[in-house]
Design a protein that fits this description.
Elements: H1 6-16, H2 28-37, H3 53-60, E1 69-71, E2 77-79, E3 83-89, H4 93-103, E4 111-113, E5 122-124, E6 136-143, E7 146-153, H5 164-177
Antiparallel strand pairs: 1-2, 2-3, 3-7, 4-5, 5-6, 6-7
Helix pairs in contact: 1-2, 3-5
C-alpha cells in the first residue's frame, strides 16, 4: 500500500482525530500536527499491533477499505479507515488522554459510563461543530498502565451513538491483546 503524502496524512489525522475541532488558539491542522508529534513514553508499542483489518470489518460489519496504518511518534495512533485507535502507555496514561481532550476543548463534553470496560471507561459522542465534520463516537478504557481511546465514524445519516456495539466489539479485541 502506497503511503499518502504528509499533507494528506495530516488532513486524515485532523479528520480521524475527530476531536480536531476549532480551538481558539490553533487551527485544526496545527492541532493535528501537535497531536501527531506528541512524544510517548519509552516502551510504548504501536497501536496497530492490537487490531487487524479483519477485526475492524467484523466489528463494523463492512470493509474499512484500508489496513491499519500507524501515525504519531512510535505509532501510538492507528488509522483504521473508519476511525482510529489511540494508545497511551505509562503511569500517567489517563492524564495523557485527558490532555488530548483538553487540547481539543472537549474535556467537558458529556460522558456515558461503559459498563464492563473498567471503572473509568466511558463513551463520548462529541457533536460536530459544522456540516463538514463527521459524526464520531469514542470508547475510552484503561487497563493496567494503558489507556485506549477508540473512535469510529458513524455512517452518514446515522447518529454517533449507533456505533456503540462496534466500539464495544473492537475494544474487547484490543483489551485482550494488550500486554
Amino acid at each position: 500500500m502506497q503511503r499518502a503524502p504528509l499533507s494528506g496524512r495530516l488532513a486524515l489525522a485532523s479528520v480521524g482525530l475527530a476531536l480536531a475541532l476549532c480551538a481558539a488558539a490553533q487551527t485544526p491542522r496545527q492541532q493535528a500536527e501537535k497531536e501527531l508529534s506528541r512524544k510517548m513514553p519509552a516502551g510504548t508499542f504501536q497501536a496497530c499491533s492490537l487490531v487487524t483489518r479483519a477485526d475492524v470489518r467484523k466489528a463494523i460489519g463492512r470493509d474499512p477499505y484500508v489496513d491499519p496504518e500507524p501515525f504519531g511518534n512510535n505509532g501510538w495512533i492507528c488509522n483504521i479507515g473508519v476511525g482510529e485507535i489511540k494508545l497511551y502507555s505509562g503511569p500517567n496514561s489517563w492524564e495523557q488522554w485527558e490532555a488530548t481532550l483538553k487540547g481539543f476543548s472537549k474535556e467537558n463534553d458529556p460522558k456515558t459510563p461503559a459498563p464492563g470496560f473498567g471503572q473509568r471507561a466511558y463513551f463520548l459522542y462529541p457533536k460536530p461543530d459544522n456540516k463538514f465534520q463527521g459524526s464520531y463516537a469514542f470508547l475510552v478504557a484503561q487497563q493496567r498502565a494503558h489507556t485506549v481511546a477508540v473512535s469510529l465514524e458513524a455512517p452518514e445519516g446515522r447518529p454517533s451513538e449507533s456505533m456503540r456495539p462496534a466500539l464495544e466489539a473492537l475494544m474487547k479485541t484490543i483489551l485482550e491483546r494488550l500486554p
